[in-house]
Every structure is written in C-alpha cells, then in structure tokens.
Automatic annotation (TrEMBL):
Annotated YHYH domain residues: 105-195
Signal sequence interval, chain numbering: 1-23
Keywords, comma-separated and alphabetical: Signal
Protein name: YHYH protein
InterPro entries noted in UniProt: YHYH_dom
Pfam families, alphabetized: YHYH
C-alpha cells in the first residue's frame, strides 16, 4: 500500500506539472499543495512570529522564534511571564536571547527515499512560532535536562527557545497541529482527526497516511506525537525521528 501511494503521488504531481490548467481535482490529492499555493495548515501558524511563503517548489518559514503563549522564560515583567517555581531555569530569557530561525522545506515531501535521522538544533517550527527539537540535549539524553523544561515542554539553551515535549500550550492530548518539520511533513498531537482518537497504525516515526483537519477529505502522510510517556518527564517526546520525508 505504501509503495502504491508513493507512486500515485508522483504520478499526480507529474500530471499536475504538465496539466497546470486542469480543473479536475476531484480524484487527486496533490494538485493544491505542489507549488501553486501554501498548504492550508500554514494558516494555523502564529502570524505575529512567522512569515511563510512559497519559493519555487519549497516553502520558506521565517520566524522570530517568540511564541504566543506564557512561559517562565519570558522573564519577570513580561506580559507572558508565568511563574514556574519548580522549573530549574537556564540563565537566558526570551528578550535577551536570539530565537530567530529560518527553515526551507519541500512543499511536497519526498516519501520515497531513505529515512534520515534528526540532528541537534531546530528540527521544525511549531505553530506558536518557536522551534521544535528532538529527544536529545547536547548529545545526551534529554532526561538530564528535563528539570529546566517549562510547563509546555520547552526551554532556552544554549540557542533558541525550543520544545522537546508535547507542547501543552497548543496541544494537550488532542489532534491539534503542532508544526512542520524539516522534511516538509506536518506534526500533529497524540490523537488523529481521521478517527478522533489515538492512531494505531503509526510507523517508527509516528507517521501514517490519513485525512487531517487541513486536507479537505484527502489522505496525506503526517506525524503524530507518539503516545508513550518519555522517561522521568511525565510527558511525551514531540518528535524523535527519523524523518520520512527527505
Ligand atoms: Zn533543549
Ligand atoms: Zn493522523
């Protein structure tokens, strides 16, 4: 089934390239997302932080990295500061830290290649505008740094403010969009819009191909936060990889 889907996607894309004026999209699923308009899911991103646009067959996401939710990392006095006395905060606060990032992803993820491991640093941009990181901290296990994670599974440093865990500020045991990863595949919460509950057919990356709330009935490959508690954090890893869309 997977090979068939990939072949169909490639065929549809090729047809779309040669038949740009075709108005019949009743049976295809990729006509609208190739290169002519942004995927509908990008409308969910924080427009105060992000600038998102097409560049050929790529999507560019520029972000200030400043999220539209509370955190202890905003620092005392900021309107979005949240007092989190149990968090072992790192020295940096949002206003004195450079959180800006730009990523460029394929508008149409290539699902036919080999999987690719995630790396340290930004692995995606969340709908809040802040970065998503994997399950490592400075080359070691994340649980060693878990004490510095705020209420929404994020911290600063070194580098940009970033989420390691399920970002409860905008997805908490639900089907909400989390963000887009570097391979161009969208990441959703622990539940799937196609069934309203936890998916049972996920691959090793937490991915599967179903409809989502942003695909108007079409099936599309996407990731979920895998519904397994991580170590001593009492929460869920946002994304550990590997990427399937490179
Ligand atoms: Zn980190
Ligand atoms: Zn799903």
């Amino acid at each position: 089934m997977k090979i068939t889907f990939k072949f169909l996607s490639f065929t549809v894309f090729s047809l779309a390239a040669f038949m740009a004026c075709s108005s019949d999209d009743s049976t295809s699923q990729d006509d609208d997302e190739a290169v002519t308009e942004l995927h509908a899911a990008f409308a969910a991103f924080n427009s105060d932080a992000t600038t998102i646009y097409l560049d050929g067959s790529n999507v560019v996401i520029e972000t200030t990295g400043l999220p539209n939710h509370e955190s202890v990392y905003w620092g005392v006095g900021n309107a979005l500061y949240r007092d989190e006395p149990t968090v072992q905060v790192t020295p940096s606060i949002m206003s004195s830290n450079n959180n800006a990032t730009t990523i460029t992803v394929d508008a149409t993820p290539n699902l036919s290649g080999s999987t690719v491991a995630t790396q340290l640093n930004t692995i995606g941009i969340a709908v809040s505008g802040a970065s998503i990181f994997n399950d490592q901290e400075g080359g070691g296990a994340l649980d060693q740094a878990a004490g510095s994670l705020d209420w929404t599974g994020a911290h600063i440093g070194p580098g940009v403010y970033h989420y390691h865990l399920e970002p409860k500020a905008f997805t908490d045991d639900d089907e909400n969009l989390v963000g887009i990863l570097l391979d161009g595949v969208f990441l959703y919460g622990r539940k799937c819009n196609s069934t309203g509950t936890y998916p049972t057919d996920l691959d090793a990356s937490g991915g599967h191909t179903t409809t989502t709330q942003y695909t108007i009935g079409d099936e599309e490959y996407h990731y979920h936060i895998i519904n397994e508690l991580y170590s001593n954090t009492g929460s869920y890893i946002a994304f550990a990889g590997p990427y399937q869309g490179y």
